[in-house]
Design a protein that fits this description.
The protein has 474 residues and is α/β, with parallel strands linked by helices. 28% of the residues lie in helices and 24% in strands. It has 13 helices and 22 strands. The termini are far apart.
Amino acid sequence: MMETHRKVQVAVIGAGTAGLAAMTQVRRVTDNFVLINGGALGTTCARVGCMPSKAVIQVAEDFHRRKVFDRVGIVSKQHLTVDIPNVLEHVRDLRDIFVDRVLAGTTDELGEQFIDGYARFAGPNLLQVSGHRVQADNIVIATGSRPVVPDAWRRFGDRVLTTDNLFEQDDLPDSVAVLGLGVIGLELGQALGRIGVEVTGIDALQRVGGITDPAVNKIAVDLMGREFPVWLGHRAELQEESRRLRVSSGEQTVVVDKVLVCLGRRPNLDRLGLEQLGVETDARGVPKHDPHTMQIDGMPIFIAGDVNADRQILHEAADEGRIAGRNAVSKEIQSYARRTPITITFTDPNIASVGVPFTDLDESQLAVGEIRFGPVGRAVLMAKNKGLLRVYAQRRNGKLLGGSMIAPSGEHLAHLLAWSVQLGQSVHDVLRMPFYHPAIEEALQAALQDLKRKIDPSTRDTFELERLDVQPRP
């Protein structure tokens, strides 16, 4: 096969969320670009991440709801069962729809601007892709990430599951150990347990779901532990036992059919030949870069999305792709502000964190307001009145800094709080907003009122309407 040579203004490596966002910015300025992708098309979110996992979670939540039927007067719950092979087929059908939507109007229409293959640097501005050599004035690296699986565990073959192959199973095992209780492990562990898989959850840390607030973490561990055994503080060890796997953690042990490994994701950098760039990298092999420009060490190379191991979340990957793509076609490198951090774990209740992590805050300058969901009216009506919401602000002026929660409908509360933080609002500003009754948002209102009292101990009421003018009494 004859090698081809191409010269372009921009080469984007990777057709995931960040790469497609970068390409969108580039093609607004020039058609002189290529998009290079090795492996399956479709974003991590659509293929193996956010969307198929949420499909499983929704089925699990629907089925789990039967446990309150007797209490509210709905009978015959015993006739409900789960057909797991059909559930998995449903998940794949939805997955394929989302992948098709991603590909439609993007890679499907690129023609020669798309190169199928794995790119490798042959020099600072030169890429080798199968039988192609591409010289690019600017390059965007957006090669994504993959699940971490310890090498020693690979010998267990198909008894080791990750999100890359979980949704491809025709059926699920009777028992599974979920190794790693971060966002993905906690979501899938709860969902699998609710549709009938016997689940044991294990994590080397003493916290779950990426929670940094110890009060929220305590509640989360308790609530998750009511659904499946949660073993914390020790790494998992695997041994083969009669075609099954014995999983040990500290003094505890269980024999399961398979393990679901959720130990984080590794940046896809090993095939790129970054040594050709001569740039400084961190312990994970990620090149030093500016998170506001996405530029690597002053070079005409930008890195965006999961591959930089910074904020491995879809909307952040899209933002980074846009920044990288725009700077790749701009005469001057521009810095861009980043959005207020927000993470959501779609467990039931939701776990969410907003703004500055609790462990990074100066507690001497901090005020914290909180509300437990036991008495929250809407949560009681939903039979979901469990959880804790904590909101953080500067003690001196009430400016909101963020918060942490395990809460029913926490995904919505987290958005409201994130918007308020990004707008620079104070607790007083937000309390002047309308809160409808009975709505779950009243929990945020209550937490803010508690926060206000802690900022100003002299506060004795919650009168928050803005005074327009003063008129003399008749």
